[in-house]
Write a structure and sequence with these properties.
Two copies of one chain form a homodimer.
Chain A: H1 2-20, H2 26-32, H3 39-51, E1 55-56, E2 65-66, H4 68-76, H5 86-97, H6 102-117, E3 120-124, E4 133-142, E5 145-152, E6 157-163, H7 170-184, H8 192-195, H9 208-224, E7 230-233, H10 236-240, H11 249-255, H12 258-264, E8 273-276, E9 288-295, E10 303-310, H13 315-335
Antiparallel strand pairs in A: 1-2, 3-7, 3-10, 4-5, 5-6, 8-9, 9-10
Helix pairs in contact in A: 1-3, 2-3, 5-6, 6-13
The first copy, chain A, binds a DNA duplex (30 and 30 nucleotides) through helix 2 and helix 3.
DNA sequence: CTTGGCACTCAAGCCGGGGGAGTGCCAAGC
DNA sequence: GCTTGGCACTCCCCCGGCTTGAGTGCCAAG
């Protein structure tokens, strides 16, 4: 009973603070929310909540603001992800439908998510890991240089140019191409290593190093690029919350690092996950929250999608948007 | 004589303001620069310069700051692009050398330029226009869907998936591929339209619409993507100049639009060009300056590279950096 | 446990008055 | 005629003190 009201108070504080961005006092609270008790009672509850670390006051004699722990409690007690309105779903669907290729899908998703949440959006390219090889092309650029183009079933295309240790003929390239094709077409990208083993040895000694170089690059491309790219959008939205950050610079800097973005989307699962403030692994981003979810073909998670914003964000709304976009991305991936 | 000194005064004002970012007064000027006259004389010159619109004062009884016109005069009188130090050149060269593919070259260039200038860097992908077709791959994803991969001599790879009006066989794809290849390999991307004319008619009626769809997409890819992508980096540097802008938001927003970025790099030539404040075509960016240059294979300009920052930037240094990176990009393109 | 009352605290906003940097103008000097 | 030192003037900026008001904690009564 008492616990219930305290929770309601916390919830009200979070909601109020998220929308006004100003410390909220006991009086304002009883006026704006149907808590059914007087401000004095709320004050007692607030003192208790502060004691437990859920809220804090910026200065004595100011209202309270939620702490990271407070947001955490708030998020944990949400009753499931609130569904979007049919109109919103239709908008998303329409927005993503017109994409011409994978790059376009990614770009549109980022834009969409940034617009929906009015925050910074992150979309990761589908991993090659769960995907199979659709096609491989080897183009001879010169006698000592070839270009590899690897096409994955997800629609992702990886290209690498390789400098060869020795000149090779067009015939060698053709031969290598056909052997590689039979070896890896339709295989999982993660299995390539075993599949291509010993393949270089089938070539005469003078061509062997070149074959090895190409195979090595191919492996490198599948492994290294595994989850390399994350697309980013909506950074302008950060500026709108300028006063939430002492300074924008470190945040923007962190967001320019692919490595950082990858860590943010790191351990996503199918569910929507929320990282609040200090829970965040990246130091420069510990004044922000990240809402992320995985998407992928069927149950396998191919990559992550998420949103980054100030800790005082609209969690329910953001979670709903991220969830929805992840769903649509999964569907698009399936259709391909 | 008099004109000479006024110019020297303007130059000193620009230099001082660029480095201190504070309105500069007559007294500070004679102390810090060897102008050889008294502050009273400088005051007269300043009054004249203000009359002519080169400088302005934020308030009465404050120092002067250069106007856009003042910067323009300053930039126009620069004696050529100042060369970078050998050490810097070596650093650039090393930095760009390790790139594995075109994407990587672009990414490294952006990063490099942002670091060198401590501002926002823009690098445009080389246009297909001046380039020739290196290879085309058509992959049959399903009976009614194919993936086109077009590889240009610049190293750029364009991919498109095409939904076909009717199911096609693997044989059709093979046939179309070989005909397209003989038609367009080695041709300029701009000439494809003529080259592929009538090609669809060589196929039986049931396959013709599919062939047409594929050819149309191919054309679309070469035309539309002609100068589509601009890579952006160093946005964090904008935050460092926060007080130079009333608000960062519109600037960041503008920078998220590819269209805007293209306009910024619009009419670049081989020379370094400078757009100062209001000279800028994009309204939201009229409080910024853009220093840009073209790069490309030999004399042909394939794309642009540039830097965006506050109007009070270090023009000589920025111009030198942009120039150098453009040069190196051209060289890399040539080597490919 | 809740509630109204009350004293207390402290950030924010509002003067008002130096202080200082910088200007414009003027009259004298080269 | 340009340059220069002098001088009065103008405002921005900073500082300290004051008031105001929102918000709190505590207490005693219901």
């Amino acid at each position: 009973m008492l616990e219930d009201r305290r929770l309601a108070v916390l919830r009200a504080i979070v909601e109020d603070y998220v929308c006004t961005r100003e410390p909220v006092g006991s009086k304002a609270l009883v006026e704006r929310y149907p808590l059914g008790v007087s401000s004095a009672t709320i004050r007692n509850d607030m003192a208790a909540l502060e004691e437990e670390g859920y809220i804090a006051q910026p200065h004595t004699s100011a209202g309270r603001i939620p702490t990271d722990l407070g947001y955490r409690a708030f998020v944990d007690r949400l009753s499931g992800v609130k569904p979007l309105s049919p109109a919103e779903r239709r908008a998303i669907s329409n927005f993503l439908a017109g994409a011409v290729d994978l790059d376009d899908v990614m770009a549109r998703s980022v834009r969409l998510l940034a617009q929906l949440t009015r925050q910074v959006a992150l979309v990761q390219y589908p991993s090659l890991v769960q995907s199979t090889v659709l096609h491989l092309e080897i183009v001879r650029l010169s006698s000592t240089r070839v270009l590899l183009v690897l096409i994955a079933a997800t629609g992702r295309v990886e290209q690498r140019s390789v400098d060869l240790p020795a000149p090779v003929s067009e015939g060698f390239v053709t031969a290598l191409r056909s052997r590689l094709l039979t070896a890896i077409i339709g295989q999982r990208c993660t299995d390539l290593s075993g599949r291509m083993e010993g393949l270089a040895e089938q070539f005469p000694a003078d061509e062997r190093p070149s074959a090895q170089a190409i195979i090595a690059t191919l492996l490198e491309a599948t492994v290294e690029s595994e989850e390399r790219r994350v697309m980013l959008g909506g950074t302008a939205n950060l500026a709108r919350y300028r006063d939430s950050f002492s300074t924008l610079e470190p945040v923007l800097e962190a967001l320019e690092e692919q490595v950082v973005l990858l860590r943010l989307l790191g351990e996503v699962s199918g569910q929507v996950s929320v990282r609040i403030g200090h829970e965040n692994p990246v130091e420069d981003l510990q004044s922000t929250s990240v809402v992320a979810a995985g998407y992928g073909r069927g149950s396998a998670v191919a990559a992550g999608v998420g949103v980054l914003g100030p800790t005082h964000m609209d969690y329910p709304g953001t979670m709903a948007a991220v969830h929805a976009v992840a769903q649509y991305l999964s569907r698009i991936l399936d259709e391909n």
